[in-house]
Specification:
Order of helices and strands: HHHHHH
Number of strands: 0
Largest sheet: none
Number of domains: 1
Helix content: 55-70%
Number of helices: 6
Length: 127
């Protein structure tokens, strides 16, 4: 019986992102969203928003694009949404991710910048 309990505890440890750094994911994601909001070229807005989105959704999340780079790779987490501390925080981060996706999809510079600022603000409100 003790072996079963020990194996279950080990399995839970392996499945938990014990080394995930949510604070870093949030900080880096918010920084990139903020940079996106100040860019004067829509392609650069998209690049920085993708970085923010990658930090939010993590390597297995919807919208992750490894080809654009993952500035949160050293945080060792599953993305800020997956690593969120509470359901309320997760909801705020999901809204920020939706703003990032909208900005990435927009060809209009002003609209993409507005979505980038909404992403940065959303991440900030989730801290």
């Amino acid at each position: 019986m003790k072996k079963i309990a020990l194996l279950a505890a080990c399995a839970a440890l392996i499945a938990t992102p014990a080394f995930a750094d949510l604070t870093a994911e949030l900080s880096v994601g918010q920084t990139h969203a903020g940079m996106a909001a100040t860019q004067t070229d829509v392609a650069m807005v998209h690049t920085h928003l993708q970085h923010a989105l990658n930090c939010l959704v993590g390597p297995t999340g919807a919208g992750f694009d490894a080809g654009k780079g993952n500035p949160c790779a050293k945080a060792f987490g599953g993305g800020a949404i997956a690593d969120a501390a509470s359901p309320a925080q997760k909801t705020k981060l999901e809204a920020a991710a939706a703003s990032a996706k909208a900005g990435i999809a927009s060809a209009d510079l002003a609209a993409a910048q507005k979505d980038a600022q909404a992403t940065a603000d959303g991440i900030g409100s989730a801290k």
